[in-house]
Amino acid sequence: MERGNYTLLTEFILTGIPYPLKLRTFLFVFFLLIYILTQLGNLLILLTVWADPQLHARPMYIFLGILSIIDMGISSIIVPRLMMTFTLGIKPIPFGGCVAQLYFYHFLGSTQCFLYTLMAYDRYLAICRPLHYPVLMTTKLSFLLVAGAWVAGSFHGALQAILTFRLPYCGSNQVDYFFCDIPAVLRLACADTTINELVTFVDIGVVVASCFSLILLSYVQIIQAILRIRTADGRRRAFSTCGAHITVVTVYYVPCAFIYLQPETNSPLGGAAALFPTAITPFLNPLIYTLRNQEVKLALKRLVCSSQKSSGTAPSP
């Protein structure tokens, strides 16, 4: 790559999200609480799945534990840097740090996308083919599928990071966003970005569209199977095992489609939408799965009772 007569950037400044200055302290505390609760909530889910023998051998909850790890990772990559934009002074992010942030965000984000698809397939087998489920979805197979999701996500993240940072960056170093993401960083490139924008649109579009189509197909089959259940209690239990997954998939996919699959704009709505997959969804996932999944709630109760017995404290009536 020829450098020409310009100085390549060695750091970037993230401008953050637009906000009234009088809300600086409130927003810092708000996102600090979001971050802490996200880590604690996902850690609680992870420990519950790991500690409960009725959960940690079942593929659906293996997937849920991995989802908690991903949520903790995405939150740690994005939210602390976002909080720094609410403090006084300019705190640049090094060029290498920007590369790492973009890579790990797309690595974990695409892995999450694949994982949601695996969770939908698992629910399809459990509800539509219950007699064959223990044979078709074994613990070994679930770990192999998770490993495949990690590898595919790593490849996707590496592709996006290499394509984005192969370009020269010079002139302004202000990224008009709250983290180093592809559309915002590409605006600073001192070269033609047409190929990058096309590859990004196609690559992310294929991943999102294919995963969403497989999830949709799975749930069409699931809903048809549930409607054939004769008892209302049976239908309710079947829906309860899928309701949490449907909710988190909706919260995840709608903002992602808005951010990456729309024509190039610099609308503040893009930044607001990006808060969902980066900060809000990782915070909401533990709440959704504990409030809407009966088995997780029962496992949490068993975990609390077990800890109370081991500490010699009688459970409250």
Structural key phrases:
317 residues; sensory transduction; 72% helix; mainly alpha; Rhopdopsin 7-helix transmembrane proteins; G protein-coupled receptor activity; 3 strands
Description:
- The structure is a single chain.
- The protein contains 10 helices and 3 strands, in the order E-H-H-E-H-H-H-E-H-H-H-H-H.
- With 317 residues, it is mostly helical.
- The chain has a single domain, classed as Rhodopsin 7-helix transmembrane proteins (Rhopdopsin 7-helix transmembrane proteins, Up-down Bundle), CATH 1.20.1070.
- It has a 3-stranded mixed beta sheet.
- Helix 1 runs parallel beside helix 9, helix 2 packs antiparallel against helix 9 and helix 8 runs antiparallel to helix 9.
- The radius of gyration is 22 Å and the shape is globular.
- The model has no long low-confidence stretch (mean pLDDT 84).
